[in-house]
Amino acid sequence: MRSYTELDTFDSWSLEEKDQFTLSVIKCLILDAVRKANSGHSGGPLSSADFAYILFKEYLKFDPDDDRWFNRDRFVLSAGHESMLQYALLHFVGWMPMAEIKKFRQLHSQTPGHPEVEIKGVEATTGPLGQGVCMGAGMAVAETVLKELFNNHGNHTDDLLGHYTYILCSDGDLQEPVALGASALAGHWGLSKLIMFYDSNEAQISGITNRSDSTNVAAVFEGLNWHVQEIDGHDHEAIRNAIEKAQVIKQPSIIIGNTIMAHGTANMERDHETHGAPLPQEEIDATKEKLLMPDEKFYVPKECVAHFQSRFEELRQNISVWKTSLSEAQQEDAFNNAWKMTIDDELPFLTYPQFEAGASLATRKAFGATLDEFAKQLPHLVGGSADLEPSNYAGNFAKTYGDFLKDNTKGRNFAFGVREFPMASMMNGMSLHGGLIPFGGTFLIFADYSRPALRLGAIQQVRVIHEFTHDSFFLGEDGPTHQPIEHAMALRAIPNFYVFRPGDAKETAACFEKALQLKTSPSALLLTRQGVPVSDKSMDEIKAGVEKGGYICTASEGQPELVFIATGSEVSLALAVSERMIDKKIRVVSMPCWEIFMEQTQEYRDEVIPLRGCMKISMEAGTTLGWDKFIGPSGLAIGIDHFGASAPGKDLAQEFGFTPDQVEEKIRNHLSALL
């Protein structure tokens, strides 16, 4: 090992000596930052450091001058608690100022406790373990799909689209079932540009891993159709050989790195207590002495930075060639138009399917018809279903565009199987990659299975469209286990997440388009199993209403006495009740999206739902929780605050008080009680 006292002879050192010294600098930088913050993770970043260093310094393809260059390799730190390792490497790249390193885990810094996607050089927000594996797999899918898409537009694809996705994961990542669900799909689909390093340091927060796990990871991943290599995770030549082999294998690849927790420390190697805490200052001092580093906090000599960046000129030259190739390809109109629509994300004007006014049509069927129409116009609209194609009405899409498979990478449909959480998380990865608009379908009740991914998608501001059908007790005979009650409200509770519950087929199409336009937010479309009447309003009127989130469907002249506020299938119920109560001045408001409605001006909201002078009644076949914000203290919330039952939907409507007669009676009784 070389000492900092010999730094004046750095140029004469061997490559391994330079690498080991630079690595020691990185390790001490990590220890100093975690110690200064008095919180964070020390041990894991040290055990992973060798692989991450070799990858960043020698193999990762990126533009040193533009972290958003599209054809870059993606690196996902699924073990997000090892964030300080990534920040240290980004400092060496030149993207993370030392001032921010010194503010690790502090308010408004660029170095939060877990990586966040808005930070320069970070591809995904990670920390909830397992999801980084899924998002990385989704990115690898996106790379493959886009490459095939552009194969239809000249012979430039190999030059312009083709990159790897690298994942660094931990024991905890692979203990989360969601990671194995995504890994099963990655193996099934043969994602050969996906390379994952598993930092097998055998230590977790609570102790060594064999307290809770004896899984043969190599055997599991072999069974999932991955290429498996097992190496000494601190051996640089072994790391290089493993990466190079993984790059040419026609399978996703996992490199199991047998590593030592807190590798390089003076006295605390293999100590699980280093996992989630700063090391004592005495241990840091002793470690610096062992690694022949100076007694100096945040020590980063310029020689090490220059060594790390020795490949940058080559990277820049490659980028220049790429830009020239892109410019030439864009001379072809077909290629240029495809590039603008996908990579530059320029949405075209969309045409809609035709729906017959007055016809009874389930909104899930309307979604399917709209999907078929939009898919013709948006070649980058991709997605699938969690084994519910017939129910989600995504079957025609699947038939038309084919399943994405290792032997059919042109396919735009993803047969996710019964994997709601991996599906949602992988779609986040596809969206983060850029170039694709992913959708995924399942029953609303199973939003609970995917909720962590929905939340993480909202945090990351990704455009992902979740199709949730069978949106109420009206689904019927499957009973309370399949009848969502609290789910719409639970989804509305997620910040930056748009929940659409369209009232008919036309609203469904308009809501779908609006979701496509929300480029920094995920959306959910909650859709009926049962038929609902198609509005006789024009599509332009419906679109204008959806654009505002809520609008007046019908109204008596003058100031209303009663305002009905409804979503989904209850819009038609509200209209039916209003036609019965001819002795009252009634206004019916359809509110397909709370979130958009609340973004409107107070003036518009008061225009639609007056603050005073009328009684407000909400109608939604779900929990009444939350409706008080619209109906006020004297209003009436018509909903269901208990679990459902197994019976045909019409029988349940009668049982739960959702017929026009029953709703009218509830309203009149409420009015009488107020008087």
Characterization of the model:
This protein is 44% helix and 13% strand. It is built from 28 helices and 20 strands. Strand 19, helix 26 (628-631) and strand 20 form a beta-alpha-beta unit. The chain has 675 residues and is of the alpha/beta class. It folds into three domains: 4-314, Thiamin diphosphate (ThDP)-binding fold, Pyr/PP domains (Rossmann fold, 3-Layer(aba) Sandwich), CATH 3.40.50.970; 360-533, 3-Layer(aba) Sandwich (Rossmann fold); 547-674, Rossmann fold (3-Layer(aba) Sandwich). The longest helix is centred in the N-terminal third of the chain and has 23 residues, at 15-37.
Fold topology:
Blueprint: H1 15-37, H2 43-59, E1 74-77, H3 83-93, H4 98-101, H5 131-151, H6 157-160, E2 165-170, H7 171-175, H8 177-189, E3 194-200, E4 203-204, E5 207-208, H9 217-223, E6 227-232, H10 236-248, E7 253-258, H11 281-290, H12 302-308, H13 312-329, H14 333-342, E8 360-362, H15 363-377, E9 381-385, H16 389-392, H17 395-401, E10 413-415, H18 420-433, E11 437-443, H19 447-460, E12 465-469, H20 487-492, E13 498-500, H21 505-517, E14 523-526, E15 531-533, H22 539-548, E16 551-555, E17 562-566, H23 570-580, E18 586-590, H24 594-599, H25 602-608, E19 615-619, H26 628-631, E20 636-638, H27 649-655, H28 660-674
Parallel strand pairs: 1-2, 2-3, 3-7, 6-7, 9-10, 9-11, 11-12, 12-14, 13-14, 17-18, 17-19, 19-20
Antiparallel strand pairs: 4-5, 8-15, 16-18
